Amino acid sequence: MNISNTFGIPATADRYLEIREETELQALLAGGTLCNAPLLLLGGGSNMVFAHHFPGTILHLENKGIRLVEELCSGDDVFVEAAAGEVWDDFVQHCIAHEWHGLENLTAIPGTVGASPVQNVGAYGVEAKDVIHSVRTFEVATGRERIFMNEECRFAYRDSIFKGELKDRYIVWSVTFRLRRTFQPDVRYKALSDALAAAGMEHPTAQQLSEAIAKVRWSKLPRPEEKGSAGSFFKNPVVSESQYRKLLSEYPDMVAYPVAEGYKLAAGWLIEHAGWKGRSLGRCGVYERQALVLVNLGGCTGQEVVALADAVTADVERRFGVTLQKEAIII
Ligand code: EPU
Question: Is there a catalytic annotation at residue 158?
């Protein structure tokens, strides 16, 4: 049993199943055995920390396929359906090569297509919700197919109905994206526009934009093959305007962005200024180039990750009065 996870933590479960064909999944659901025990849907394992044995079934989708949905395409709109088991970045690169645009800013995110609506993955100013048209699923309890249109997915920052109310009740089988034939680079994110300007590329091609994104990304985040991690371990916390103003008066260089509910604080900044950047506890460390990321320093266990996360959370709370929420899922 090889339960893959980018943190590189050995994981165990009562049962581990890989599914490639729709008929296999339907037969499994018809048997009803998935309802008898806890179920965990595993994509690339890029957002999970295994701290305990999983007392149920882990289902890993390995279905493949990317197709143009001709019947929906019209004018500049291109609709592309990708199987849940496709590797996310392979899909992004496939779209760029076919001149289907809109996914460039989501280059080099680890994980699979199936996880993208669940997590509403996002980076450099773009979120999956901006490009997802619909999500095709199967209900675990009945095996019935159900298509969720974008609005039904209740997308929010790193969140969706599949992580909330309907958690583990539907299996995402494929996702249809609404892309464009015309390339309109989205370079609102400052670190990105700075990197492009420095490279003399104010008007990048889609390929150049994707390469620039990968460069910015890998300058801050550890490559999974070099150092185990779950990407951003915490979410960026949102605080009220009054709490933001109070913090800002004390910490004038604090990084924050206005959002509808108040202000989103850069958790990396908070963790760094609570003194944790580059520090470690046991075999788990706070990454020296991006404090939002916890890394496996070699042979780290899930419990060590949780211990470090708790220590960081307690210090940030003590210092700033802000409670960090985990983005990573602890099993
Ligand atoms: N910062 C610090 N110290 C740090 C890290 C960050 O002061 O150690 C400050 C910097 O001023 C920086 C700002 O925080 O300018 C924001 O940092 P960054 O651009 O690296 O983005 P982030 O808010 O830390 C989020 C996502 C990332 C995504 C990037 C780019 C979350 C939880 N994380 O990080 O997503 O790649 O923006 O869009 O929203 C992921 O979810 O796994 C992930 C990597």
Answer: yes
Q: How far apart are CA 2 and CA 276, in angstroms?
A: 32
**Mean pLDDT on 38-46:** 91
- Cα separation, 207 vs 4, whole angstroms: 30
Using alpha carbons, list the distances in angstroms from residue 135 to 107, 172, 240: 20, 7, 33
Reported as a single tens digit per residue, the pLDDT across 107-128 is: 999 999 999 999 999 999 999 9
What would you report as the CA-atom Rg of the chain, rounded to the nearest whole angstrom? 20
Can you tell me which residue has the tokens 């109070």?
Answer: 246
Residue 318 designated active-site: no
119 lines ligand 1 (CB under 6 A): no
pLDDT tens-digit map of 287-297: 999 999 999 99
Q: Which two tokens stand for residue 78?
A: 């291109």
Alpha-carbon dihedral 12, 222, 322, 156, rounded to 10 degrees = -80
Q: How many CB atoms are closer than 10 A to CB 87? A: 15
Tell me the average pLDDT of the chain. Answer: 95
What pLDDT does 32 receive? 84
Q: How far is the C-alpha of 164 from the C-alpha of 154, rounded, in Å?
A: 9
- From 116, 127, 136, 158, the catalytic residue: 158
For residues 58 and 230, give the distance between their C-alpha atoms in angstroms, rounded to a whole number. Answer: 18
Q: pLDDT-derived band of residue 262, with 50, 70 and 90 as boundaries? A: very high
Q: Tokens 């620039």, residue?
A: 212
- Nearest CA owner, ligand 1 atom 2: 269
Ligand 1 binding pocket includes 293 (Cβ within 6 Å): no
The mean per-residue pLDDT over the stretch 55-60 comes to 95
The secondary structure of residue 312, as a DSSP letter, is H
Q: What is the pTM of this model?
A: 0.93
Mutate which of 218, 232, 253 to test ligand 1's pocket (most atoms within 8 Å of Cβ)? 232
**Beta strands across the sheet bearing 77-83:** 66-68, 77-83, 170-180, 132-139, 145-149
Complete DSSP assignment for 222-277: --TTTS-EEEE-BPPPEE-HHHHHHHHHH-TT--EEEETTEEEE-HHHHHHHTT-T
